[in-house]
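We both want to read discrete structure tokens more fluently, so let's practise on a single case. Would you supply a protein for us yourself, any chain you care to pick? Would you write everything just below, so we can both look at the same thing?
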Amino acid sequence: MREGRRGANVGPMSFAFAYRIREDVPRSDLRDLDRVALTAAAVSDDGDTVAAGTEGTIVSVYNDGEAYTVEFAEPPGTLATVEPAGLRLVERAAA
């Protein structure tokens, strides 16, 4: 045990506490089926590099916009998980 603020004994940092720190990552209002473009190169789930400026479609939203799975046409069926800062909206999906 270590002594925390105000003299309280505190154990090692918990996973829940570490996750709360990560929640400070800004989220965006992008949603499923929005057309987006990469603002920087990204690595696909298969390890391929997808160039900045490449357009794709959001197919999954994680934790209310903490990250997105984007499908790209080239190479065919390429998927990449991208944080909001790595994307810009091209076209909003129909509601």
User: Anything to note?
Assistant: The beta strands are 2-3, 9-10, 35-38, 42-43, 49-50, 55-62, 67-72, 78-82, 87-91. The radius of gyration is 18 Å. Residues 27-91 form a domain with the SH3 type barrels. fold (CATH 2.30.30.140).
